[in-house]
Design goal:
Distance between the termini: 103 Å
Structural class: mainly alpha
Strand order of the largest sheet: 2-1-3
Number of helices: 14
Number of strands: 5
Radius of gyration: 40 Å
Helix content: 55-70%
Strand content: under 5%
Shape: elongated
Order of helices and strands: HHEEEHHHHHHHHHHHEHE
Length: about 350
């Protein structure tokens, strides 16, 4: 371009040629692209780099009225463009639309993510063609902005409850009576019913919370009952009565039977139930309750060891007894076993 217009018969100065290019660019009659093929805003074009820029004639023109409509569309996503600067804002507009689409759908049970093929088609155009593509689809894009914004807001309101429900589900796996609720949760997920009316999630949270609350209260009651039985057993144990308070504390703590080791059960609200279960899952709580008799056995054995260091711990045989004769035979066997062991010192039966 410079060679053409600086030579005869034109003889223009370089300033005139470069200035003419800038005027055509600002007027929208041509567009400029850098070495990477990216469209340049007229304000970004520097005189020192103009020799490396590719200029292309615009095949279409955009009227002032069309630009006004384009700016209105940009404003719907929070972009304020001045007259003549609309093209520079289109990449931001397309990115905001993609982000809005991501918020308006996605993984189940959210609605499916909206189709953004039209945005990709606009992105493939350039210059005035891109502006006109935006203008020609302004009604479609404006409607998408409204509907996607509405979906995104509704999803944002309901999603926290869904995450709470999923946490409850994780703790309720295998819980008797939870099968129907878990099936309903699965249906909501498979059929993407998060935004259904009335809200299907709230009632499930309430029902599942109550089931878990009942189970926690049941386990807490069993824990207290077995713990009381174990303490009563120790109170009747002569070895335990001989121990110092510190020795008792050490034995109870070592077997997780001290009061501080008891799971803290708070079930007033859904949040309380989840906090309790996060600290001690139902399976873990159940294991603690089931293991309590054996742990009190360990405490009693520990007390015997401290009081009778030479004591032997004897495990008597376990059998299924169905007749009087079988009982008599078992008693004889145990009797012989204990007598034989007694010759070697005091014995403690496990």
């Amino acid at each position: 371009i410079r060679t053409q217009f600086e030579s005869s018969p034109y003889g223009w100065s370089r300033d005139a040629v470069d200035g003419g290019l800038q005027v055509l660019l600002v007027a929208g009659l041509i567009r400029a692209q850098d070495e990477r093929g990216q469209t340049l805003d007229p304000k970004e074009l520097e005189r020192k780099t103009i020799g490396k820029v590719m200029f292309k004639v615009e095949s279409a023109t955009v009227t002032t009225a069309q630009r006004i409509q384009i700016r209105k569309l940009l404003q719907k996503v929070g972009l304020s463009a001045k007259q003549g600067e609309e093209l520079a804002y289109i990449p931001q507009f397309l990115q905001k639309m993609v982000e809005l689409a991501d918020q308006a759908g996605g993984e189940a049970p959210k609605p499916a993510r909206p189709d953004t093929t039209s945005l990709d088609e606009i992105r493939l155009t350039a210059g005035n063609e891109q502006l006109l593509a935006l203008y020609n689809r302004r009604d479609e894009l404006g409607g998408s902005i409204d509907s996607w914004t509405d979906l995104a807001e509704r999803i944002a309101k309901r999603w926290p409850n869904w995450t709470v429900l999923k946490r409850l589900v994780a703790h309720a796996s295998g819980l008797q009576g939870a099968e129907v609720i878990l099936a309903q949760v699965k249906t909501i997920e498979q059929q993407r019913q998060l935004l259904e009316e009335p809200d299907p999630v709230g009632p499930l949270i309430a029902n599942l919370t109550q089931l878990l609350r009942d189970e926690l209260n049941k386990l807490d009651g069993e824990y207290a009952s077995r713990h009381a039985e174990g303490l009563k057993r120790l109170a009747d144990d002569s070895n335990w009565q001989q121990l110092e308070p510190e020795q008792r504390y050490q034995l109870m703590s070592a077997n997780f039977l001290h009061e501080s080791a008891r799971p803290k059960v708070e079930v007033q609200s859904t949040s309380d139930v989840l906090t309790t279960l996060d600290n001690c899952a139902l399976s873990m709580f159940g294991d603690r309750v089931a293991a309590m008799p054996a742990r009190f056995d360990n405490v009693a054995s520990g007390a015997a060891e401290l009081c009778e260091p030479q004591a032997q711990f004897i495990q008597v045989p376990r059998r299924t007894l169905k007749t009087d004769e079988e009982i008599d035979a078992w008693v004889d066997d145990v009797k012989q076993q204990l007598k034989a062991a007694l010759q070697n010192g005091p014995i403690v039966i496990r």
